[in-house]
């Protein structure tokens, strides 16, 4: 059994849209430094902030959280928290400020469209204490797709002063990054395009490796010895996931995760040995 590391290589395409004064730039850098000061040098963390009344009412079913979670895992970023807030400025501001102080990255989805209830850009600007303006590069991108610009469509080009665009190849309407907060669309196809464009400039860490084991046993059969293995390998996360099979009945899949290939392999071997012992005991 051998566990290797994989890397996800993506091309870089950095673009900046506006000059930032030195005091403002220093404040943004301090915000990011504060958020990462308590993190290990190797561990990069993130939160997702989903914004929208339609999510909370159930009218729209979120399809972004799972996609972003898997995507971040693949590039070495640990997703630690997900929040959902309504289209209420005070709640968006409070959530953004809490999350950006705690995690390396904050990814928001929703609320950057052309209508009156799309207030994410204004709320992010308020969270950072920055003015909001029509970004000329964003306006130009919009006009590539929508030559007849009007006041509503122009709302999609408004963002905090000093923001860096997150381009998207689907509709051209960009998202933006400010400090360690990355603001993306709620429409899944557009959000995914933005995430691809954003990834090359994200700070990432070592990738988490995983190994799955089909136990073929009920959780109750293996709970105690599995707990003992987890205590022996605190640096390897061991998840137990019960399923029901019509032929075999209740069974369990174990998933082991670690950044250390050697420790992951050792833990997997311990689990395999434990399962063999339990099966032998149940046969007698």
Structure description:
The structure is a single chain. Strand 10 and strand 11 (249-258) form a beta hairpin. The radius of gyration is 23 Å and the shape is elongated. The strands form three sheets. Strands 2-1-3-8-7-6 form a six-stranded mixed β-sheet, sandwiched between helices. Strands 9-11-10 form a three-stranded antiparallel β-sheet, covered by helices on one side. The two termini are 30 Å apart. Helices cover 41% and strands 22% of the residues. The protein has two domains: 22-201, 3-Layer(aba) Sandwich (Molybdenum Cofactor Biosythetic Enzyme, Chain A), CATH 3.40.980; 209-283, Alpha-Beta Plaits (2-Layer Sandwich). With 284 residues, it is of the alpha/beta class. The protein is built from ten helices and eleven strands.
Please give a quick description of this structure.
By secondary structure, the chain is α/β, with parallel strands linked by helices.
Fill in the keyword field for this structure.
single chain, 284 residues, alpha/beta, Molybdenum Cofactor Biosythetic Enzyme, Chain A, 2 domains, three-stranded antiparallel β-sheet, 41% helix, elongated
